């Protein structure tokens, strides 16, 4: 039984010349150029590269990092933390983020904005406002940014970590204040409605690190309240140790109940020592040095391979985003990336490259039949068919026609 | 500051004779005859007494038990467990329960039916049905019983223990099967809608033993999905030990966020040893003897006094129902009642009698003014004013007119 059957489709191509005549008996190469599945990373470094607003040697370093990233991945998350996007009310960093988003899109990378609403890193000036003003400011932010980025960023983590949002108590913030008043479900409802209104075709994601029944009941409540959640986002920061197959399968089973697509939006599996288990808020773990080591790099490579495989084998999962591509600048200083601080690739980089570009890819050579057709089964996504000087692009998806004509010449 | 101000109201009565003339300077007695607040117990014994379908000495015993109950309480919960109400499809125990409900109402006791929907003690014959058939059968049950009892039982625990309902795994049952498919919120929505349709004026309660964030998020989701929950029901089976003031206040605070009335629907504080803390499902605790002791009866009396006081002082709480009135036949054999197995009252019986009938009651004597009026503040509820041979009834509530005329003679 093919565990990846749900990732594939079969189609028949009929190769025609410019006069519409079938090209028979021709050896053609058929190659997946971009997965339908979204394999991504946090790609905040694209901001430096797109805007070229850092010193020259840093820029070269960042460009090399992005080159290594582009060699494997087809999806990226860009930062829209309100505190950093609009630290001064009325002066959003739209241009910078637009440049980064466009830079990625030109390179066939799907871009997601993260997040529109969160109690952490939210606009500090909300604290001066009444709750009603906070609500209006947050909705206005969504309206402005979802509208401005429409066509460039069409996937959004609309609201992040709602389970804890109204009871978050590390520091006062405008979003927790508002969520206490509105309640969780109404908060989600208002924010999703506004995002949906501004970009009806967008993919809107509800995201959380909480994978308990709390999150299940929240999703259930939101769906029954008419919230148009497109995707369930699940964080998997595993600084304290790999969840393991059993827990991962259990989480997948529980969140499959809704029949909605699932994205693993923020994965971390480090190549360093494990964070102690008694730490509850990962942000509390502050150490000077958290090195990557050869032994733990091997562990990371094994865990990444198993983790990615289990997820790719699950029919509802449509994306895996590793939170960090590189150890350089990683949250908490953790060795959380696929490449080291000096851009050298770890074994885990080679693993994901092999899985995404080889094992889970389609690259075949075959000959067209007398009637110019060739039938094949391949991983879903964007393709190129080529022979001689000729290259033509086509798509393979679940709803691809059983037969498609490709006009060449 | 009067911590019970929210339980009281002030009104002016103008006492008139049959000719409409004020009765001045008359000494009158004003007495609360029935609390607005619902102080209740599970009163399943009323079934025996109303139907007189048990042996004579058992009947006498039950009648004495109910006499002791009626001397203190003004609310009762009657059992509508589907497995017992309709063990054979099409033959519900309507007459028996109707007799019990009427017997209680004739004695000014407000009656609640418990529960319409639950995964435990549900109709066993559901297991032969498809999920769609289970849904229809459950809705038909609600329609039949809520309609039949309208005017007699107008308060219902519509659905019980929804947090665990879809993942309950002790034994297969039709309600868990259905809830797995519909999801929690939709399950609640369907059941409440049917109950509401059949008795628009009913008080409909959502009930649970789960007081965690799970239950908060569930309520939030249901309210946002448009479910017309009138009251939040909270079970407090404290076989393993009194929650204590801190936990009780914390639970009250969290469930106050909705602004809905709260009923403590199933309280247990025993006068015996504590159930071990490692027991998760209370039903797993099976012992031969769980005696009431003088030492623990004193403990029970203190805990009951504090528990009832904290709840009566909280403005959103509108009812406390002690699950068992008597140790006789108590769930798990626990000494959970106010009276012992031989109907003798424990210290806790004297405590609740004192609180409900004396400390939290109004019984005054005063003289009418020259204009026949008398103004007083009292606990809300039904009253009798009497003087000489004359008795007249009136109500005192938050929305009572500032002045009411009472025609006597």
What do these coordinates show?
Chains A, B: Belongs to the glycosyl hydrolase 10 (cellulase F) family. Chains A, B: It catalyses: Endohydrolysis of (1->4)-beta-D-xylosidic linkages in xylans. Chains A, B: Pfam families: Glyco_hydro_10. Chains A, B: Keywords: Carbohydrate metabolism, Glycosidase, Hydrolase, Polysaccharide degradation, Signal, Xylan degradation. 2 copies of one chain form a homodimer. With 409 residues, chain A is of the alpha/beta class. Helices cover 33% and strands 23% of the residues of chain A. Chain A has helices at 45-51, 56-70, 82-85, 94-106, 131-148, 174-182, 184-198, 213-224, 244-255, 294-312, 347-359, and strands at 8-16, 27-35, 38-42, 75-79, 110-114, 155-160, 203-208, 231-237, 262-268, 317-322, 363-367, 373-379, 381-387, 390-396, 403-407. In chain A, helix 1 crosses helix 2, helix 5 packs across helix 6 (174-182) and helix 5 runs parallel beside helix 7. The first copy, chain A, starts with 7 loop residues before the first strand and ends with a strand. At the A-B interface, helix 7 and helix 8 of A face helix 7 and helix 8 of B.
Mind telling me the CATH class of the largest domain in chain A?
Answer: Alpha Beta
The profile of the biggest β sheet of chain A is: 8 strands, parallel, barrel
Task: Report the structural category of chain A.
Answer: alpha/beta
Low-confidence parts of chain A: none
Approximately how much helix is present in the residues of chain A? 25-40%
DSSP summary, beta strand count of chain A: 15
Separation of the first and last Cα atoms of chain A: 39 Å
The biggest chain-chain interface is: A-B, 21 and 21 residues
Oligomer: homodimer
Sketch the topology of chain A as an H/E string, one letter per element: EEEHHEHHEHEHHEHEHEHEHEEEEE
Widest sheet, order of strands of chain A: 3-4-5-6-7-8-9-10
What is the radius of gyration of chain A?
A: 23 Å
Tally the structural domains of chain A. Answer: 2
CATH homologous superfamily title of the largest domain in chain A: Glycosidases
> What's the architecture of the largest domain in chain A in CATH terms?
Alpha-Beta Barrel
Number of helices of chain A: 11
- Which fold does the CATH topology of the largest domain in chain A refer to? TIM Barrel
Strand content of chain A: 15-25%
Protein name (chains A, B): Beta-xylanase
Domain GH10 (chains A, B): 51-355
GO biological process, one term (chains A, B): xylan catabolic process
EC number (chains A, B): 3.2.1.8
């Amino acid at each position: 039984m093919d565990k990846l059957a749900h990732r594939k489709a079969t189609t028949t191509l009929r190769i025609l010349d410019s006069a519409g005549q079938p090209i028979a008996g021709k050896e053609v190469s058929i190659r997946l150029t971009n997965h339908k599945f979204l394999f991504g990373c946090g790609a905040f470094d694209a901001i430096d590269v797109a805007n070229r607003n850092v010193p020259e040697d840093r820029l070269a370093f960042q460009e090399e990092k992005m080159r290594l990233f582009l060699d494997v991945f087809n999806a990226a998350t860009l930062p829209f933390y309100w505190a950093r996007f609009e630290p001064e009310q009325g002066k959003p960093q739209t241009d910078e983020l637009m440049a980064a988003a466009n830079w990625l899109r030109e390179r066939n990378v799907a871009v997601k904005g993260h997040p529109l609403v969160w109690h952490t890193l939210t606009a500090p000036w909300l604290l001066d406002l009444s709750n009603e003003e906070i609500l209006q400011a947050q909705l206005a932010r969504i309206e402005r940014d979802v509208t401005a980025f429409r066509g460039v960023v069409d996937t959004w983590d609309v609201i992040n970590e709602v389970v804890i949002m109204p009871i978050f108590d590390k520091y006062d913030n405008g979003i927790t204040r508002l969520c206490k008043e509105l309640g969780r479900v109404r908060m989600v409802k208002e924010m999703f409605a506004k995002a949906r209104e501004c970009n009806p075709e967008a993919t809107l994601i509800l995201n959380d690190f909480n994978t308990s029944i709390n999150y299940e009941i929240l999703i259930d409540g939101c769906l029954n309240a008419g919230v148009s959640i497109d995707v369930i986002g699940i964080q998997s920061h595993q600084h304290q140790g790999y969840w393991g197959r059993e827990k991962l399968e259990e989480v997948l089973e529980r969140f499959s109940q809704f029949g909605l697509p699932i994205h693993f939006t923020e994965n971390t599996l480090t190549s360093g020592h494990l964070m102690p288990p008694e730490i509850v808020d990962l942000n509390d773990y502050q150490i000077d040095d958290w090195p990557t080591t050869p032994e733990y790099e091997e562990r990371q490579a094994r865990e990444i391979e198993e983790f990615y495989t289990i997820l790719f084998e699950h029919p509802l999962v449509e994306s895996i985003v590793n939170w960090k591509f590189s150890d350089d600048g990683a949250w908490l200083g953790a060795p959380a990336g696929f490449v080291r601080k000096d851009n050298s690739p770890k074994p885990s980089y080679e693993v994901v490259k092999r899985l995404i570009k080889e094992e889970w890819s389609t690259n075949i050579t075959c000959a067209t039949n007398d009637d110019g057709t060739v039938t094949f089964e391949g991983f879903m996504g964007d393709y190129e068919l080529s022979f001689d000087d000729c290259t033509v692009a086509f798509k393979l998806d679940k709803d691809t026609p059983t037969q498609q004509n490709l006009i060449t010449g």
